[in-house]
Structures are given as C-alpha cells and as structure tokens.
Write a structure and sequence with these properties.
mainly alpha, single chain, 6% strand
C-alpha cells in the first residue's frame, strides 16, 4: 500500500486511532471539571444561568464520553492484534497499570455518571453535586494511570529483564518514573486549555449571531478567565517538561530543534524555521537566532544541546515530523496566551462581549487546543522512535507478524468506519452546541404529558427539541 511496509501500516493505524481517541478524553476531562464548577456555583449563588449552562454542557459531555469509551476500546484490542510482541515484552507493567485505571477510574465514572446525567430531579442536590465531582475526579484518576503507563514507556524505571520480558520490581518507581510528573501536568492542563477554547468559541459563535443572554456571557467569561490563567501556566510546565526530556531523551530534543551538529564550543542557536532533511543530515532554509537554543533548553548561554549526529542514524527520530509538530503546538500556545491577554484588556474596558474582531478570533481559536494537543502527542510519540519502550524495545521488534495486505485492509476499514461513526457523533455534538443553553423551568420533574414542555435529561433527546412546535400543535389538536 503506497510502498509502505507492514510496520509502517501498523504504526499508521495506531496513530490514526489514537488521534481520534485522544480528542474525546481531553474534552471529557475539561468538561467534567467545568460541570462540577457550574453546579457548585449554582448551589452557592442560585443563579439560573449556572444551572442552564450545566444542563447544556452535560449533554455534550455525555455524547463526548460515549465516543471516548468506544474509541478507547479499539485501542485496547490493537495492543493484542498489532503489537503482540510489545504486550509479551512489557505486559507485566502496562497490563496492571491499565487494569488499575479501569478499577479506580472507569468504575468510579460509570458508577456516578448515571446519577449525574439522569438524577437531577431524582436525588438530593448534595448527592447530585457529589456525583458530578466524583465523575470529574474519575477523569483525572484515569489520566493518572494512562500517563503513568505511557510515561514508563518513555522513561522506564523499576524493572528487571527476566527471560526476555520486563518484570516490575518496584511499583512506585514504575509509576512515578522520571517523566511522569511533567507529562501528567502537561496533559491535564492541555485538557483544560482545549476545553476553555472549545467553550469560549461556542459562546463567541452565539454572541456573533445575536444570541446574547446572561448564560452565554457567563460561558464566555468563564472560558476566557480559564484561558488567561492556564495558557501561561502550560508554557511554564512545558519548559520544565523540556528540561526533563533533554535529560532522558536527548535525541528527541535534537530532532525537535532540527539541530545536527555542534561547532566547537559555540552555544546552540535556536532554529525558528527550516526543513530538516534526514538524508542530507542538515536543516535546509534554517532561520536561526544565536545562543537562544542554549538559553531555552539549558537556561545558560554557554552549554550546548545534543545534536542529531551524536546518535547513530538508526537511533534518530524523524526530525522533519517532530520539528514542525512542535512548532505548531508552540505557535498555537502563543496565540492562546495572546487571546487571554486581549480578553483581559477588553474586560477592563467592558467590551469583551461586543468586540466583533475579538469574538471572531475566539471562535476561530475553538479547535486550537485540540490541534495543539494532537501536535504535542505527535511530538512526544514520534520523537520516541525508533523505540516503543525507550532504550529497551524497538518499534520494529514490537509489532505482530501481519502482512501488508492484512494491515492495508484493516487500516482502510478503520478510516471509513471512524469517519462515518465519529463524524456523525461530532456533527451531532456540534448540533447541540448550536442550540445553546436553554432556560429550565423549576426544579420539579416533568413526565412530559400532553401539553407539558420539558428539557429531556437523555443526551440524545436534546436534538429532538426542534420538534417542540410540531408536538405542541398535536397536543392542542387533541
């Protein structure tokens, strides 16, 4: 298929499925915490707009959660079908960690999700709020275990090799491996950033269409406060993460920088733009800033950054790919910080809800958090190559023994099914976003009898609200 080998197709298939999957947990993590804040604020202030926003975003959360579960199950099967040698080699570490995620996080989320989605008028306010908080905590616990497993593959610790297999000897060292704290914080904050811009873009879209009400304004305000705070925090975390990567995965940093060789004792320049050529072993059309590479990556003006030629050609990541994926992530990060600062300037002048140029920018920035998240994961995972478990197991040695034809067919089917299934789900979620928050009438449950108007608690039924007029006409006729 297109001249690719079986290993290339196996990697492409996993990259495709994980790229779809990672978007859903990111929004789930952010929305779960957002819902907990909304309900907490409603209980404290009794402002109707908080409640309206809670019901609005809980429907979108439910759809997103369902798509995340489905896409995650596919990836679990792929470990056995396409990467059986990896499972055989490292399953004693990754298997228990993923099991802990199911036992502690997924069961917690599943146990309280029903109460959160359907228990608004069926349980007390305290219990319902507790359920929302538990779902939010469950998403963060899930992040903890998934990142522990993935980080161990980048910086393996606490193991021994017995009969060609990894055997854990220190679970604390396995879990809290050197890159784990930085990657956990970086991913968690990335989820909050992505959700903030998703929520903010939804509010900006409604304001630009003239749908201006207290709930929409509060939605925009909360999203931009979050963006103002967490986008700069994410940049600081990224800096610490980069220092950690320089220590434990120097080849990845060299590839990210497109840096091929050091000259004498000269400090390393920062290559802003260019085109790393893996065959020619140089970065073409490089635009450099002297000293800045050393300053950013070592926090000094004298130390050098490791160069790609310090490593064997077979041990080098694809610099062309990670060079640009990293710059997409960083570039969007600077735009997010700029958007947050502009929002603060407009807020002080009481124009944050009316400046159309700003609202257009916020709307355009809606997918920026998710795009930056994908670019970051590409940088992380492609930068780890050619290793699946860094320094222990190469990617080519981890794949199952499948033919090119088998992997070509399965990859083609994945592409077709994913775009049909998740494209439909995404379109439906955008339809819910387009409806906007709806006012809720009272706290008493309604059974939807003749002539009674209600906002359904079932997530999928929200899309049927467009038929209310037809329903009212029928009931009047009866």
């Amino acid at each position: 298929m297109f001249g690719l080998e079986a290993i290339d197709l196996a990697r492409s298939q996993f990259a495709f499925t994980v790229s779809f999957h990672i978007l859903f947990p990111a929004i789930t993590i952010g929305l779960a915490s957002y819902l907990a804040v909304l309900e907490g604020m409603w209980l404290k202030t009794h402002e109707q707009s908080y409640r309206d926003l809670y019901h609005f975003w809980s429907k979108i959360f439910a759809v997103n959660f369902g798509m995340g579960v489905v896409s995650g199950l596919v990836m679990a099967y792929e470990f056995g079908t396409n990467w059986s040698r990896f499972s055989d080699f490292a399953g004693a570490v990754t298997g228990p960690l993923l099991t802990y995620e199911v036992l502690t996080a997924f069961f917690l989320e599943a146990g309280f999700l029903g109460v959160m989605l359907f228990g608004w008028n069926r349980v007390g306010r305290g219990l319902h709020f507790f359920s929302t908080v538990m779902v939010a905590i469950g998403t963060l616990i899930s992040t903890f275990w998934i990142l522990a497993s993935n980080s161990w593959m980048h910086t393996p610790q606490g193991y021994s090799i017995v009969d060609g297999r990894v055997v854990p000897v220190d679970w604390l060292a396995v879990i809290f491996n050197p890159s784990f704290p930085y990657r956990l914080l970086h991913m968690s904050v990335a989820a909050f950033v992505a959700t903030a811009f998703f929520v903010g873009a939804s509010a900006a879209w409604h304001l630009l269409r003239g749908n201006d009400n207290p709930a929409i304004r509060k939605m925009l305000s909360m999203a931009l406060w979050m963006a103002l705070i967490v986008a700069p925090v994410q940049a600081v975390i990224g800096d610490f993460h980069g220092l950690n990567t320089l220590e434990h995965q120097p080849a990845k940093i060299a590839a990210i920088e497109g840096h091929w060789e050091n000259v004498g004792d000269e400090p390393t320049p920062l290559i802003l733009f260019g085109w790393p050529d893996m065959k020619a072993e140089k970065t073409r059309f490089a635009v450099e800033i002297p000293y800045m590479g050393s300053l950013i990556l070592t926090h000094t003006l004298t130390k050098q950054v490791p160069a790609l030629k310090d490593f064997k050609p077979e041990d080098r990541p694809n610099s062309t790919l990670v060079f640009w994926s990293f710059r997409v992530m960083v570039g969007l990060g600077f735009l997010m910080i700029f958007t947050g600062l502009w929002s603060l300037w407009l807020r002080r002048r009481e124009r944050i809800y009316t400046n159309k140029w700003f609202l257009r920018l916020v709307m355009i920035m809606g997918p920026s958090g998710l795009i930056a998240l994908l670019a970051g994961w590409i940088t992380t995972e492609a930068g780890r190559q050619p290793w699946v478990v860094y320094g222990l197991l190469r990617t080519v040695d981890a794949a199952s023994n499948h033919s090119v034809a088998q992997l070509s067919i399965s990859l083609a089917l994945f592409v077709i099914v994913y775009f049909m299934l998740f494209g439909t789900g995404f379109g439906y979620m955008m339809r819910l976003v387009g409806k906007g928050p709806q006012p809720h009438e009272g706290d008493q449950p309604s059974h939807g009898g003749p002539g009674q108007k209600r906002t359904p608690s079932r997530p999928l039924s929200a899309a049927e609200a467009g038929n209310d007029t037809h329903h009212d006409n029928l009931t009047k006729g009866n």
